[in-house]
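Hi support team,

I submitted a single chain yesterday and got back a structure, but I'm not sure I'm reading the token output correctly. Could someone confirm the output below corresponds to the sequence I sent? I've pasted both exactly as they appear in my results page.

Thanks,
R.
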Amino acid sequence: MKTQTTAAARQQRLNSWAQMVHECQNRSIGMTVDEWCAANSITKANYYYRMTEVRKACLKAMPPEAVEQAIVPVSSELMTMDIQISSDSSHEDNSSLELNLNGVVIRVTEQISTELLSKVLGVIAHVK
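Hi R., thanks for writing in. Yes, this is the structure output for that exact sequence:
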């Protein structure tokens, strides 16, 4: 029984903290986090602690497949490459994107899997 009470109390705290974080994130334009914290009688350190706990709880509650998604790092060199984007009307499916990166042409369509696109972008990021 004590464990259920503790879990319920923690959930109530997290709900309250989530509301507080939401309010801070939607504070007036120009108002800093420091100012918001002072106006709401909370220290900045305590605010960030609560925000971290809310984020941890959200991540813990997410389904495993959502957490396992990878972020592919893109190097700064790739971001400065001359990328030409064109659409080719000779294909049956006009909803495609063609990337020309230093002579390498990549056609991305709606049918491409996220996994394949992630792998391709990962390889391109390491091309010199």
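A quick pointer for reading it: The longest strand covers residues 96-101. Let us know if anything else looks off.

Best,
Support desk
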